[in-house]
Amino acid sequence: MPSPLTFDQLALAAPLLKAINEVGYEAPSPIQAAAIPPLLKGHDLVGQAQTGTGKTAAFALPLLSRIDLALKRPQILVLAPTRELAIQVAEAFRTYARHLKGFHIMPIYGGQSIELQLQQLKRGVHVVVGTPGRVMDHLRRKTLRLDSLQALVLDEADEMLRMGFIDDVEWILEHTPENRQIALFSATMPPPIRKVARRHLQNPVEIKIASKTSTVEATTQRYWQVTGTHKLDALTRILEVEPFDAILIFVRTKNATTELSEKLEARGYACAPLNGDIQQKLRERTIDRLKKKKIDIIVATDVAARGLDVDRISHVINYDVPYDTEGYVHRIGRTGRAGRKGEAILFVAPRERRMLRSIERATGQPITEMQLPSRKDVANRRVNQFKQQITDTIEAQELKFFETIVEQYQQEHNIGAGEIAAALAYMVQKERPLLVEDEKKAVKKEYPDAPDRAVRSGRPHKKPSRPEIGLVRYRIEVGLDHGVQPKNIVGAVANEAGIDSEFIGHIKLYDTYSTIDLPEGMPKETFRILKKVRVMGRPLNISLDDGRPARKPPARPKRTGKPRPRIKKSKVQKS
Ligand code: AMP
Ligand 1 centroid to 140 CA: how many Å? Predict the structure, then answer.
């Protein structure tokens, strides 16, 4: 669980707080709450923590708070076991330091041109992140000088030991100034790592995020190993086949709650975000809507879901891994309530497998691996739902009038009832295919220009091209999910605004909105009319397109039942 502390209470430098807020971190993770204060004070530190606990920010934030930007010499050195980790840590530093003017960081690792590294080092950097071998190389050549070094971080020290770098690490430690601060992070503490700590660290503060054992008996636990499939695609496939009542999805950041919630909404789920930035009143309303079945899914951060107690939550999905086992137990405790059985699903990236094992150990229960539902599973489910719809209609509706029409048709055309029923079924389902193609491939095949799914809603879309000369790109608030086709838009714009259809340029459809290129110099009056014009029953609410993230679609009638199958994408490109 993240601690009840807020970042503001941690005395970090203001530009860093600003960056964290933009990234959407809501509260410090336990390792951050414990490590940031002593590191800010300059203490040495030994932290037993693995990937996924937020350890990178736990050292990056306090150390960055203390650097002198005017001094363009390496003040922080991070040693990491692999090139991937070095790059990842450097990226995290860049994110947190985005408001530190003139900040420079440099990852150095083998396999990269040493010339390039030399040039950058000469230009001056504040932070170096590197693998031990290459760092040693530069120290020997005196191309890297550590006389201004304030702090040294050993990240994943046990991995460095396992990979045979421990002597190099010691050598580097011996070539750093005496008063530098050292932070050592390691998932495990084998004796050689303890020895390094004893020899080189001075009165280190020791932090270990305790993993309490707890039982979670009412809940069946599964995990999905994140592989090539995008997490969002995996989630939507699971949602399609998993029988659920209500679902609580956990993500790490505030931004992720809104982004994911919008994406699920665009796919037809009755869904809402819950995060600490949302006012208490609105949060309570959201929870109430979940209770009253007005929505079925909540996407929340740990902080916002504290104390959330809704009996109908049948599933907890850990879309992002929790920070520690205690956090996991808290999260899945939101299901399996009031004597019901709960289901917990955890998405685990290969690097987070250690967290999976710690959770199993702490809960004393195995978490079984789940396979993603196949396309066939999804199709079967859709077919079954379709059949159920037929049954429900036969049971609940007065069909006499339609029976007469079908009989008439049969006689007029000498066609069997089966064929007529098939044609009707086709008409009903043509926008909602029962057979599932690989969605990504299908979209690409149909519209080679379509941006990737990840940017089709939620985040700012990449402009596929510029509008032609003389045209301006506008955004309108109707998209694929509302069943729109380019012809509907052309028709409405041409008729209502009096713009001849030959002057209407490209139209691109996205999930929740579309873009349209129209002639420059549109009169104010036309603009005003176009704001109000309705297509598929929705006001276009036209605005200049500036690639902003998709706005939250205005509330539409919610289905309280299960998701509708995906709407088949229609032709997108108007040429
Ligand atoms: P790490 O354990 O350093 O590899 O971090 C794992 C992930 O957690 C990274 O994607 C971070 O961006 C994210 N993260 C770290 N701290 C926080 C926080 N306080 N709130 C939300 N996400 C965080």
Answer: 34
What digits encode the pLDDT tens for the residues 268-322? 899 999 999 999 899 999 999 999 999 999 999 998 998 788 989 999 999 999 9
> Does the beta carbon of 252 lie inside 6 Å of ligand 1?
yes
Closest among 212, 211, 399, 234 to 318, alpha carbons compared? 234
Question: Helices (DSSP H) in 124-244: which residue ranges?
Answer: 132-141, 157-162, 166-174, 191-200, 231-241
The pLDDT of residue 461 is 37
Residues 460/466/469/475 CA torsion (nearest 10 deg): -30
Distance CA 74, CA 120 (A): 12
Is 133 in contact with 165 (CB distance < 8 Å)?
A: yes
310 C-alpha to ligand 1 centroid (Å)? 28
Task: Say whether pTM exceeds 0.85.
Answer: no
Query: What's the CA gap between 564 and 562, in Å, rounded?
Result: 6
* Ligand 1 atom closest to Cα of residue 301: 21
Q: How many CA atoms lie within 13 A of 415 on its CB side?
A: 13
CA of 52 to the centre of ligand 1 (A): 6
In testing the pocket of ligand 1, which one of 1, 3, 32, 56 has its CB within 8 Å of the most ligand atoms? 56
Q: Which domains does the chain have, with CATH numbers?
A: 7-208 (3.40.50.300), 219-373 (3.40.50.300), 376-429 (no CATH), 441-544 (3.30.70.330)
Q: Cα of 321 to ligand 1 centre, how many Å?
A: 10
List CB contacts of 333: < 8 A, sequence separation 6 or more.
216
pLDDT, tens digit (0-9, with 9 covering 90-100), for 436-471:
654 444 333 333 333 332 233 333 333 446 777 778
Centroid of ligand 1 to alpha carbon of 342 (angstroms): 27
Nearest atom (ligand 1) to Cα of 51 = 2
> What's the mean per-residue pLDDT of the chain?
84
Using pLDDT thresholds of 50, 70 and 90, give the confidence band for residue 173: very high
Check if 270 has its Cβ closer than 6 Å to any atom of ligand 1: no
- Over residues 96-112, the mean pLDDT reads 91
Q: Could you tell me if the CB of 51 is within 6 A of ligand 1?
A: yes
Q: If you measure from the C-alpha of residue 28 to the centroid of ligand 1, how many angstroms do you get, rounded to a whole number?
A: 9
Minimal-distance CA residue to ligand 1 atom 16: 54
Q: Which of 28-37, 354-363, 496-505, 556-565 has the lowest mean pLDDT?
A: 556-565
